[in-house]
Amino acid sequence: MGCFVSFFGGIFYRKKVAESKIGSAETYVENLLTDAKKSAEAQRKEILLEAKEESIRAKNEADKEAKERRNELQRVEKRLIQKEEVLDRKTDQIERKDEQLQKKLSTVDLRKAEADKLVERQQAELERISGLTGEQAKAYLLATIESEVKTESALMIKEIENRAKQEADKRARDIVTQAIQRCAVDHVTETTVSVVQLPNDEMKGRIIGREGRNIRTLESLTGIDLIIDDTPEAVILSGFDPMRREIARITLEKLILDGRVHPARIEEMVEKAKKEVEVMIREEGEAATFETGVHGIHPELVRLLGKMKFRTSYGQNCLRHSIEVSHLCGLMAGELGADIALAKRAGLLHDIGKSVDHDLEGTHVSIGAALCKKYRESDLVINAVESHHGDVEPTNIISIIVQSADAISASRPGARRETLEAYVKRLQKLEGIADEFQGVEKSFAIQAGRELRIIIIPEVVSDAELTLLARDMAKKIEAELEYPGQIKVNLIRETRAIEYAK
Asked: d(Cα 270, Cα 253) in Å, to the nearest integer?
C-alpha cells in the first residue's frame, strides 16, 4: 500500500515539476515573442525613418539639379537671344553691303564698257599709227620675246657648258693623257705590195716558167699579181688582200728554197703555205689574248682575232689597233673604277667583225655583234661592239670607254692614212657644211681637217647666238661625215670700227 502511495506521489510530483517547466517555457516564449515584436517594431521604425530621410535627400538633390538645369537653360536661352541679335545686326550689315556692291558693280560695268571703248579707240589709233593689225603686232611681239628667250637660253647654255667643260675636260684630259702615256703600241702602216728577194736573176726565169705557165699558176692559185721587172734579184707581189699576199710570199720563198718550180709543185706549196698561215693566225690570236691578259675567249673568236693581223683600216693594222684599244680600255677603266678585265675584253673584240666583213653582208659592227652573240659573250661586250661607232646607244660605262679608246687609237698622229682624194673631199665637205649656215662669211678647214675655223658676219649673228650656231654646225657634221677622232668647230665673230683723223 505504501508503495502504491509512493508511486502515485512520485508521479504527481513529476507532473507538478513538468507543469512548472512548461509554464516557465511558455513564459520564456512569450517574453521572446514580446522582445521580437519590440525589436521588429523598432527596426521597422528605423527603416521607415531611413527611407524617409533618403527620399528627402533624393528630393533635395532632384530639386537642386532641376534648379541648375533651369539656370543653364536660362543662360543658353540668353546666349541664343544675344546671338540672334548679333546675327540680325550682321544680316542688316550684309544687306547694306550687298546694296553697296550692286551699286559698285553697276559703276564697274559702266566703267568697263567705257574702258573697252577706249581700248578699241586706242587700238584703232595704234594700228593707224603703226600700220600693223592686232595679229601682226602680236606676231611681232612673240617674235621679239622668242628672240630674247633664245638669247637668254644661249647665254645660260654657254655658262652651263663652260662650267661642265671646265670640270669634265680636266678630268677627261687626265684620264686620256695617263692612258696614252702608259700605252705604247707601234703604228704599222701596211702597203699593198710585198717584196721577195731572189738568190739570183736566173730564178726570175724559172718563176715565169715555159710560156709563163708557172707565174700564171701562182697568180691563179693565190690571187696575187707577180711583178717581175728590171729590179735586180727581187720579185714584187701586189694585191689588196694581205692574207693572200702572205700566202703568195711564203709559197714563193718555199719554191726558191726547194728549187723545183712547176705547176704541181706550186699547188703543193700553196697548200702548205695556207696551212702555215692558218697556224700563224691562231698563234697571233693567242698572242693577242696573252698580251692583253684577256682569257676565256672562244677558240673561233681567237682565230678571227689572229685573222685581223692581215686586215687593215685606213692603213692601220686591225689586230694592233684592237690590242691598243684593249690596253687603253683597261687603263681608263682603272682610272674610272670600272671592271678592268671586262673593259679589256670589250676593247679587244670591238672590231672582230672586220675579220670576216669581206665575206659576209653588213657592217663590221653588226657582224661583230652577231659573232659575239653566237659565241656567248656577255651583254656588256655585245653592247660595246654595237655602240662603238654610235649605231646603238651605249648602255654602260664599258661601252663609252670602248668608244673613247677606239677614237684615241684611230686619231693618234700617224695611226691612219687617207688617200689624197678622200682627204681633199672631206675638207671640201667640211667647208661646204659651214657655208650652208646663215651669217657665215668664210670657212677654213685646218689642221688636217681636225678643226673648222669659221668667220662670222657680226651684223647677222650676235655673241649669244654664236653658241647655238656652233652646236648646230657640230650636229650637222656628225650626221653627214665619217671621220676618226673629233673635229673642233671654232667660230670667230669680230667687230671693228675704223676712223681716220685728218
From this structure: 11
For residue 320, the model assigns a pLDDT of: 86
If residue 442 lies in a helix (H) or strand (E), which one and from where to where?
strand 440-446
pLDDT at 190: 47
Instruction: Look at residue 177 in the predicted model and tell me its pLDDT.
Output: 56
Q: How many CB atoms lie within 10 A of CB 226?
A: 21
Nearest of 310, 307, 348 to residue 329 by alpha carbon: 348
Q: Specify the pLDDT at position 345.
A: 92
DSSP alpha helix (H) spans, 337-462:
340-349, 364-374, 379-387, 397-411, 420-435
CB 224 within 8 A of CB 245: yes
**What are the two backbone dihedrals, phi and then psi, of residue 133, each rounded to the nearest 5 degrees?**
-80, 175
Contact 277, 299 (CB under 8 A): no
Burial-class residue 216 by CB neighbours within 10 Å (0-12, 13-18, 19+).
Answer: middle
DSSP state of 439: T
Is the CB of residue 332 less than 8 Å from the CB of residue 344? no
d(Cα 307, Cα 309) in Å, to the nearest integer? 5
Q: How far apart are CA 208 and CA 114, in angstroms?
A: 111
Distance, in Å, from the CA atom of 293 to the CA atom of 280, rounded to the nearest integer, reads 20
pLDDT in tens, 160-217: 777 776 676 666 656 655 555 555 454 444 456 677 777 777 787 878 888 888 888 8
How many angstroms separate the Cα of 337 from the Cα of each of 164, 172, 326, 332, 409?
Answer: 21, 14, 16, 8, 21
Q: Which residues of the chain have pLDDT under 50?
A: 184, 186-190, 413-415
Task: Please state, in angstroms and rounded to a whole number, the distance separating the CA atoms of residues 110 and 108.
Answer: 5
